[in-house]
Amino acid sequence: MRVLITGGTGMIGQRLATLLIDGGHEVALLTREPQKTSTFRLFGWDPQAGTIDPAAVPYADCVVNLAGSSVAEGKWTPERKHEILRSRLDGLELLHRELAKPGHHVRTLLSASAIGIYGDRGDEILYEDSPAAAPADDFLADVVLQWEAAARAIGSLGPRVVLPRIGIVLSPEGGALVPIAKTVRYGAGALLGSGRQYMSWIHLDDLCRLFVQMLEHDAWQGEYNAVAPEPATNKQFTETLAQVMHRPLLLPKVPAFGLKLAMGEMSEIVLGSQRVSADKVLSEGFTFEYPTLRAALESFYE
Known about the structure:
Blueprint: E1 2-6, H1 11-22, E2 26-31, E3 41-46, E4 51-52, H2 56-59, E5 62-65, H3 78-99, E6 108-111, E7 113-114, E8 125-126, H4 139-155, E9 160-166, E10 168-170, H5 177-185, E11 198-199, E12 201-203, H6 204-216, E13 222-226, E14 232-233, H7 234-244, H8 256-263, H9 268-271, E15 275-276, H10 279-283, H11 293-301
Parallel strand pairs: 1-2, 1-5, 2-3, 5-6, 6-9, 7-9, 8-15, 9-13, 10-12
Antiparallel strand pairs: 3-4, 11-14
Helix pairs in contact: 1-6, 3-4, 7-11
């Protein structure tokens, strides 16, 4: 099949593209910089301006939408919040416009979502049908609710829509693990806040293998928690990482009030607790290569 990936120049998109090619599929990327050199075919688009190469959507059998500005970069000023939201909605609205036109054969849209939809829920085990956090009280939940709604609207045009709610993606090449591992390596690792908050994570390779399965098999439809089967508390995560990296944890906890002072509202990313279930993904027959945190971390640091 031919797969068109938005946000394909990022960490997840690059690994997914490689796995798809290895699996015998064709891959093209939608990018704002189509003139750049790439091993993949590039199509240009500018979601903010509402422009796209007219050959892009007709190329594809499936579209993978990974476009969206990182929520962890820069304080959440009103301007930054607007950018985070629009960077997700603009691309989907542009895809909706193009997929409403005749002359294409796109049968599947896999559109990234996030476990941020559940908000801070303590020890509660969260399933796909668990209620979302109140959008008025939780910025990330508000973003994800609008993000998913924009993707579902494309389903009314005919394509199968799959919404993987992605947890913390573990990779030494980017994402949340890099700064955490850096502090541990230099003896500055510490629990964040109480340390009791749950971190629902997934190894980058498992996430991309899951995406491939979702694309290849029509049984996958709707929302799925894209997380490993064993969420860890921040304490468990930090201690396991230190053990795998053979480093001691010397510092006391970083107090929650200090994180809130330094990060503002964005501190909810590290202080919020989301204990997310992988049962639905497992019931569809997906097998994790890295089901445990230690195995995932050892794949990077042993």
